[in-house]
Amino acid sequence: MTVPLLVLADVSRHYRGKGGLFRTGEAVLAVDGVDLELHPGETLGIVGESGSGKSTLGRLASGIERPSTGKVAFQGEPYAPIGSPAWRRQRRSVQVVFQNPSQALDPRLSITAQVRGAMDAHGLTGGKASAGSPAAILARVGLEGLGRRYPHQLSGGQLQRAVIARALSLSPDLIVCDEAVSALDVSVQAQILNLLQDLQAELGVAYLFISHDLGVVRHVSHRIAVMQHGRIVETGAAGDVFASPRDAYTQALIAALPAASPAARRARDARRRLELAKV
User: Fold this and answer.
1) What residues contact 205, with CB distance under 8 A and at least 6 apart?
2) Residue 58 · residue 31 · CB < 8 Å
3) pTM for this predicted structure
4) Spatial separation of the C-alpha atoms in residues 236 and 220, rounded to whole Å
5) Predicted pLDDT of residue 128
6) Is residue 232 pLDDT above 70, yes or no?
7) Domains and CATH numbers, the chain
8) Helix, strand or coil, per DSSP, at residue 100
9) 3-state secondary structure of 176
10) In angstroms, rounded to a whole number, what is the distance separating the alpha carbons of residues 43 and 37?
């Protein structure tokens, strides 16, 4: 068993809600007592409905936010104070790909300039210190010859590839994908998911893959954690979670997925009736 790359131990995060004129707002618990481990080269899918705390968990895992209670450790060390030089060094190894790539890119700069800017910010000049030159990185994600373009000149899928290229330029060990394909067309989603899997096979990068779409999570994940109301209600190997979901919430999510064929739907319904008969 490899040493975990990322460990969340009894992590909670609460926010202060809006209060009235003479009273303080009540605390809103976004993440509640979460325990998770992610190993090098692994994809851990985090799935749940909107408002379940997935994105907050992603920010905690990436060091963008600090937990209210509990501990987050990356490569065996807790995250340094946010904004400190030590924190910036850690954050080079943890990158985030968000849902809307157009908001993550500077409209005034070319794609090459943005990849090079990320490298310059961390003192990288290519070669052994990074993933290579901006041109080589862009070619790796399928944007060869497009580096001189500006964000408004790229499609949605190309923009997400550019964001992935910028993350790869820092040779991260972990990429947190927060709804990274949910804004894309289905055909483009498949292309980006295949790209992420190819990069993982080539570079050994780990993913924390956050999505409300259980079908997408099933496609890319080695393990899955199901989140509801800020808590992890079920974890397991992706195949096990889909074949024999234990928690009622997980069962409801899987039941809502469209079946590949009428025969597959009948087989799924038969398994569900058998499970209910055992209760």
Assistant:
1) 41, 172, 173, 174, 175, 199
2) no
3) 0.87
4) 14
5) 45
6) yes
7) 41-56+80-277 (3.40.50.300)
8) coil
9) strand
10) 11
